[in-house]
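Usage example:
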Amino acid sequence: MKLLHFSDLHLGLQFKNYGSAAKDLQMARYETLERLITLANEKGCDAIIIAGDLFDRVKMKKADVLGAIKSINKFTGGPVIILPGNHDFISNDNDLWRYVEGGKNEHVIILAEKKPYDLENYDLNVCIYPAPCSAKHSSENEVGWIEETDIKNEKLNIGVAHGSLQGVAPDLNDEHFPMTREELSVPGIDTWLLGHIHIPWPDIPSANDNIFYSGIPEPEDMNCKHKGSALIIEFDDNREKSVEIIVPGQNYFERKSLVLESSEDMDDFAEVTQSEDYQNCVCKLTVTGSLDPDDYVRWYNEVLPEIKKSFLYLKTEDSGLRQKITKERLDGIYPEGSFPHKLLSDFLKDNDQQALETAFDLFKDIKDEN
Amino acid sequence: MHPFAGIADKKIELADGLNLIYGPNEAGKSTLFNAIQIGLLTKTNLTSSKVDEHLGDYFPLGGGDVIRVTMKLESNDRTYKLYKEWKPGTRNGTSSLIKPGGTEITNEDDVQNWVLDNLPVKAATMKEIMLTKQSALHQTLSKIRDLSDVKQDIGAVLRKSVMETGGISVDKFRECVNEKHKEFFEHWDRTTNRPEKDSQGRDRGVDHKWSYPKGILEKWYSMEEEKRKYTEIVIYENTVDELNQKLQEKNEVLNTKQKWLEHWEPKLDQLREKEVLEAKIKSIQKDLDELHKIAEEWPVYKKELNEQQPKLDKYNQKLEKLNKEQEVASQKSRFESLQKRVTKLNEIKKQVSELNVQIERAPNVSEEDFEAISSLQSDIETLQVKANASKLSLNIEALQSIEFRINYTDGKEEVFNLSKGETKKLTKEGGAILQSEQLIIKVASGDGNIGEVIGKLDEKNKKLKVKLESFDSSSVAEIKLKYQQYQELVSKKETKLSQFNDLLEDDKLEKLNQQLEEVPNFANVRELTDIQKERDEVLEKRSALNSRFEGMKKKVEEWEDNYKNTSGVFSKLGSLTTEIDSLKKKLKNMPELPEQFENFDAFKQEINDVEKSIIELKDKVQEIELEMTSLDNPEVAAEEQGNIKEDAESDFERMLDKAGSLYRVKEKTDEILSQLEEKTYTPLVEGLIKWLSKMSGGRFEEVKLPPVGKEIPDKFVTNDNKEIPFQLLSHGTKDLTALAWRLTVIEQFLQDKESCILLDDPLVDMDKERKKMASDAIKDLAKNQQVLLFSCHGEVKNLLSNENVIGLTTSFS
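Running the assembly step on the lines above writes:
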């Protein structure tokens, strides 16, 4: 049996602090879902298991939920099993899952209850033991019930949970359904498929592992250093498994650092960004260094706007970028003893680079006006 | 001018130095003035509307669609010919500049740029200071105050003398810094790092924002709003968690209760029936038990009742025997009592006889006797008290040996023998009679009646003595004892007699003694109490036996009534056993009452309670759901808002950083400029004083500049040390000071440069003397500069008659 395991797609993220790229980033998540389903069909998966946080919030627009479910309905290989995570937890007063229920086809199963879900109707000798989240935060996990259940050994038994696994997922306040390996060592459960953390775990999954985090299929912020991940897990008749990490993400987030000390540095970086494909990259660029004032102006007026075009979104943090304003340069622009020279020299002497630049730019603006 | 306004074609030659353009009103002075100003400063490639606005008035009055000005400009023996032509419509004008070598520039912008580059000052300053057509000179200063370009120009010129500005307008820089500072720090309190409070002291945080926030304030508001949103979302998510938790708990309880109710409610009728059946079975079982008992007891009772009489007879016989024994024992007891009584009576009788003997022997002190003696005793005591009331002290000294006797009132007598010189002291009550051979001295105390008292006392004593002797007694106490002893004997006797009579009752002692003479045989007779105890026991046993038999009899009668005979009992037993078996069989198919309930009523009560609590729980669930619906749903989750908040915080920090650098620039600028400011305006003040002195004959000695806008003086100090604000100066003096200021500023601007200065009737409002002094000052200026002075006044013409006078007449055009 082959299954696709992913989690934490967080459909509905708004990306409000990503300016013009927000809409693209929002839509990319729906596109990635569509891509995952297509991939599962192409790879001949027998089931898809979504281990929580398919949605970012429980309050979602109905149209968005139905759009996502429409994609999920397209899976033809078998059941799509969806676990409510802590972001899309299930409760009585919950429109989200009503929308899902209303839009899903029969082969889409919502793991709403703490009970075994036998997949024999789908010709799979598999039983799912879910730990659905019923709140955003909880200091207690939901896996306890499984130990008290009669687990049939003749089936492939898969536990599906969402939360932090001690030693793997940081959970400072123990509020994300914390679990321990001991708690997951339930006799009879062959494999645990988990969701919550956004990187796949183990880094290099092997056949001997039996607990898996799939990671996030479409990166969501700068903390995500990979390009998205999901797992294809295949079990043979002896329940021996092979695991493959796939990269279904569309966009990715990257932090870059750039030190500018010369005009060449700027041009080199511009060349790199143009020669490589960054159209799906959301980049936070930290620029440091010091440039000749003319280059400094050229950086902002010419080079940076061009570089920005290469990225899906480029956010610069340039408080560390300075202008090279030396005494020699001041002497060349303003007569010694003149007011601008005196003011700027004082800042230079005080090593107040920021005030020096502010005053320098102001003088320059006035001069340009004249 | 060919043509220009009312002038069709006119050429005017101007000399170096001072030129007086003289003529009456409407002679064309203003036209010439405007032609020079427009010819120099107005471009020819204007839009149609600008042509109308700026030049509309100068197109020929009688029609015509063109105005032209040609100017010949000379400097350092180089001559330039400037030609400008304007026509209505957009960019219909033409310009031309022919340079000394004959090179001609015709590009309109290039021509105008050449003019501007060669002006000694900026165009605006040229227009306002040097080419001013100013009918009211005194308005100059207030007008300049509003022209920041011109003021900055003046500041720059003045600063040049004290400091190189590096081509930067310091004022403009300062203005720019101030503007930026305002932009960054407007409504921001740097000390509290919060928005400034308003004039009413109210906080202007995000709940009460300042309008149109900029700079730090804008970023702060934005940051605080994102922070608030974050907090609200966290609270929202926690609230949803809490409400969900509650909802889940309530639903779990609700489900449990509903399931319980669903399970048990349908069984309610069966359980009710079961309880009835169980009660019935219990009742039948009780009947059965009773019947079994009857069946068992009936024959036993019957047998016992048949054996009843012999048992009772046995008890009766024993009782009869005991009764007889009791009678004998009673007789014995009575006889023994009589014996004791008679013995006692005889004893008392003997005691009375003995008492009679004693009474006869005892002196009979009667009560009367005793009272009489007591009365005498009492009188004697009273009299004795009186006699004792006064004491006598006798000091007797024997002058010679003497024997005497003293009798006292108490009847006592003493005899004394005193030797010569011997003394005797005596103290006695009442009185005394001293008697010797030679004399008798009677001494008495008080009023002298003591003698009578003593007499009576003596008498009573004698009577008492007689009485005592009659009873053979020596004292009243003895009499009293005898009296009491006699009385006691009498009393004892009476008591004994009373006891005797009481014991005897109505009997005669002799008769009783006779009764005792015949003694019955009381041998082997038991004690009465032992007999009675045994008798009581027998009576009790007989009574118990009787009761038992009565009970049996009653029961047997009852059973006979109910069942006739024991067969009837067995028949009934059979029918009831059948019935109870049937009921028990029925009971087997019925549900069991949950074990925690004692009975059906308790169970029924629980059903009612559960139904009630289900209704309450449903209400509560609905309430929680309603509360959840009423929550405002945030657009993003807390995690995403956390990122937005962090970005806003970073933006704010960066803005603070940026604003901080600007703040330091402002501080440093102010510091440097304040050090230079005093020196900057010194030439202005000195120039003003120089020109004012020239034009006022030393009337003003000092000029004061305001703290801000130092380009324009605001106070003038006279030679008698009066400080007069500009507004309070007379009309003429205002003109004078304004002219002096203009000349000062022109001098500062031009320094060693050449220029042409136009003055429009500057002396018009001055008195004759000042006109003279002012015209001399203008002549001084004209030594280095070309000055065109326009006037229509003959007085001015006379003052400047030696200068180049260009007369204009109405026929000028």
